[in-house]
Amino acid sequence: MRLVIMGPPGAGKGTQAVVVAASLGIPHISTGDIFRANVSEGTDLGREAKRYMDAGEYVPDSVTNAMVRDRISNDDCRPGFLLDGYPRTLEQVNELDMMLQSDGLQLDRAIELTVNTDEVVERLLKRAQDQGRADDTAEVIRRRLEVYADQTAPLIAVYAERGLLVQVDGMGEVDEVTGRILAAVGA
Length: 187
Description:
It is built from eight helices and five strands, in the order E-H-E-H-H-H-E-H-E-H-H-E-H. It is α/β, with parallel strands linked by helices. It has one domain: P-loop containing nucleotide triphosphate hydrolases (Rossmann fold, 3-Layer(aba) Sandwich).
């Protein structure tokens, strides 16, 4: 099964991605992990990404796409994968389509974790307090949620139009949400 998971900050997508991928016996592929691995291993792509990161700039899609292409071409991804943090743009959606189509494959589902904004703000405020992040105020968190919604809406629309989108209530205990996701993807 080839899946992507999306959701706003604080929705629990990182936690769910790990648990769901393990339940399905497929790798959880986080773009953050891919970046860190390439940089720490000193790969060509890692060195290129590090140049941008050191300059405080976004790593271009071309580098991100190449890292994802390289990762999903590994043997452990033959039975499928769960992408977390990719795609983030329509260009990346199209690139992922081309990566999969070149191997005669396609995405099976795009999971969107839906959440109650007020509860997520409270969750993120508590996390910020626990981690000593005084700059994470309710206003800042709400703005991050707005930016996420604006940037992700086009992706959600594309996946919904293709009949691949499954929306799952992301509120509740971890195992309850996991159960909902597994049921939604037909596992």
